Amino acid sequence: MRVRVAFPLVVLIAGMQTPAAAQAPLSASINASPGADTVTISRHIYGHFAEHLGRDIYDGFWYRPSETAPWQYRDDIIEALKKIRIPNLRWPGGCFADYYHWKDGIGPQAQRAPIVNSSWGGVIEDNSFGTHEYFELVRRLGTEPFVVGNVGSGTVQEMVDWWDYINHPGGSPMANLRKANGRAEPWQVRFWGIGNESWGCGGNFTPEAYATEYRRFATYIRAVGDVRPFRIATGPNSADTAWMVGLMANAARQIDGIDLHYYTRTRGSVVPQLAAAGGGQGAQGQGPPAQQGPELNRSATGFTESEWFVMLRNALRTDELVQQHSAIMDRYDPQKRIWLIVGEWGTWHSTEPGTNPRFLYQQNALRDALVASVSLDVFNRHADRVKMANIAQTINVLQAMILTQGPQMILTPTYHVFEMYTVHHDATRLPLTYEAGSYEFENRSIPAITASASRDRAGKVHITMSNLDPNQPRTVRTTLDGARLSRVAGRILTADKMDAHNTFEQPTALQPVVFNGARLSGNTLNIDLPAKSIVVLELQ
Ligand code: AHR
After folding, report:
1. Which of 303, 331, 336, 510 has CB atoms 3.0–4.6 Å from 307's, for a disulfide?
2. Residue 196: which CATH number?
3. Has residue 1 been placed in a domain?
4. Sequence-distant (≥ 6) Cβ neighbours of residue 15 within 8 angstroms
5. 197 lines ligand 1 (CB under 6 A)
6. Same structural domain for residues 274 and 220?
7. How far apart are the CA of 172 and the centre of ligand 1, in A?
């Protein structure tokens, strides 16, 4: 039996087992005693990302019923997103951020000059959605802004002017300009990204060169009015530990958060050192292949168990990446002052046939939902260092919450996972130990179970647990220590097919339903997890 320790959460992975043994009950235990863990699972782990890319903003949040109609917000989308209580919204990119000159997007909309969005398909960006429109969206969503400034093609002066335009209380040249454009009050933004993917589409810097550049920009993003900036540096691409070392060694003192990016793909392995190869996943295409190997089907649907297995294996690697990068951060920042932010994560499939390949529009199936639950459980378990994450992206792009077609919209399975996991927002992490069992496929194996647990302010205990095995159910016998709990209720997201998904014809084919597979007897909780399922349990 192998034993793996993930901070206070201990995962016991049974070694190579026969399929029959894999079905034996697995054991788990949760320490729910008051004070057993003091770490809060930051709600910002459940953050989102909207870039000027494809149909995320335009024809997503911001649409017009006809070419001549004025742009407007989509209330149905906003209402749906309010239900998952999105805590922050990263904007305007992505690769687009290092190409964006914010003054193009202020003033009367009719007078804003269009530009070409050379980051994403060379389409015309009419700049109708700019700073004021973003803050109005943030207000309507009830979320916190997270703005990414331009390092790659911008200047310190341009970034400082934007910071002042947004935050200066009044009287400065930029505050006066804001007022002239109809907004007297500052918006008071604290989350501020200094560039995006500076190892790739954000300027192709080396870690040392970026650290120097970062320090220069960060020096002038200063406290203004009541706002103290929370300055976020471009973090590593996946497993690029050299980037993390270069940044921590040269700029840790000026950094509040580091923005790691990791996409889960069907390719064979974690994307290695794209920075060294000079390739990003964005403007340059999708980077070099991670590993030579058998060609796998990259479609979001219509895949086989091979692609199911590889995708989930790669999602589980999020845990390794977080541990590797945290260990480097710990060397320079043992107090854990600096947030590890997973500022772009999610599945990256091939685009849907017939759509613009640079728009990154993909379907979203039960497999994506499991990638989300695996990743969110990792972030919860490492909540002492991971304080923020942003799934890419909110609407119509990559692992979206919502897909639209004209006036129609559908909620994806990933949306439902985010809704189920709202119970963990700002809750106290609970120490959880579990035997993960193994899901085997063609002589390879990965843990079958993933889980995390927390207690909310009202004292309720929540467990999220997923079974990654598409064929076999699992029973998990969980002991609860330190709390007297007498009631359990649950919901489950599952389906018969690995690629089950919602469509515009069948928008509710996949959605959570009541789960009756958990039985509480004394302090023992038996959970019968069907194959390929995600469960959320509430105990009180
Ligand atoms: O999310 C799509 C793109 O992926 C982003 O623009 C970029 O930062 C990353 O490569």
Report:
1. 303
2. 3.20.20.80
3. no
4. 1, 2, 438
5. yes
6. yes
7. 34
